[in-house]
Write a structure and sequence with these properties.
Order of helices and strands: HHHH
Largest sheet: none
Strand content: under 5%
Number of domains: 1
Helix content: over 70%
Structural class: mainly alpha
Shape: globular
């Protein structure tokens, strides 16, 4: 998975799921709002807030274990 996959999943994600990922994290919410306003924004790994990466990877790990 690369940064483009994460950005596209955040853009296509249900608003309730995004709210759950960004809950209690101001930088995470600002990052997602910025992406939704400008989907053509160039983003690198360093631009994604660490709490968002941790939550996103934890959720993906949990989904993998369900299979």
């Amino acid at each position: 998975m690369d940064i483009h996959d994460i950005v596209h999943q955040l853009l296509d994600e249900e608003p309730s799921q995004v709210a759950q990922l960004t809950e209690g994290c101001g930088p995470c919410r600002r990052f997602v709002h910025r992406l939704r306003r400008r989907p053509d924004l160039r983003v690198g790994w360093d631009d994604v807030p660490q709490p968002l990466l941790k939550r996103f990877s934890a959720r993906l790990r949990q989904e993998l274990f369900w299979y």
